[in-house]
Design a protein that fits this description.
Helix 1 runs antiparallel to helix 2. A hairpin with a 2-residue loop joins strand 6 and strand 7. The radius of gyration is 15 Å and the shape is globular. It is built from four helices and seven strands. The chain has one domain: Aminopeptidase. It has a seven-stranded mixed beta sheet with strand order 1-2-3-4-5-7-6, sandwiched between helices. The chain is an alpha+beta fold.
């Protein structure tokens, strides 16, 4: 089940993100700040939670500044052991429906080209995203940013 993220999900989601090992303390602080800002103003960005009795994943999507109808899927994270069970695809589908209702025309997602992110890249491609661009040495020397895009339209 997918639901809007509420404060009761906060600690479980932060634990999932921390346990991923992909975020340093600054990254975790940024996620906390972004999540708390969502609770104060839930109309701006979209936070969704995948639930299987307890929170098992999250998606965070926000409008891209100084664009017309472009949104960025900034985070899509699953609890260990829940990958490949359909929750990620459901989260992406719900994000797409939400942004369509907000006059979105383009959804982007950014990830790394490093081998550790190969399953993320394959997942985005399965969800209909296309590799649009690569920015060399973006995250760190030798760690390029890949930008995937997907056109969205209101039904």
């Amino acid at each position: 089940m997918i639901s809007r993220t509420v404060e009761e999900h906060r600690e479980a989601l932060l634990t999932i993100i921390k346990n991923s090992g992909q975020f340093d303390e600054d990254g975790l602080d940024h996620v906390k700040t972004t999540l708390d800002a969502h609770f104060e103003n839930p109309e701006e960005a979209i936070w969704l939670t995948a639930i299987d009795d307890v929170p098992v994943g999250a998606a965070y999507c926000a409008p891209e500044p100084v664009t017309s109808g472009t949104w960025n899927l900034l985070m899509l994270w699953m609890k260990d052991g829940y990958e490949g069970r359909g929750f990620g695809k459901e989260l992406v589908s719900h994000v797409e429906n939400e942004i369509k209702n907000r006059q979105a025309r383009l959804l982007i997602v950014e990830t790394s080209q490093l081998p550790d992110f190969s399953s993320a890249r394959a997942f985005y491609e399965k969800c209909g995203f296309n590799l649009e661009a690569e920015v060399k040495d973006f995250f760190a020397a030798g760690d390029n940013k890949l930008i995937y895009t997907k056109a969205v339209q209101k039904n």
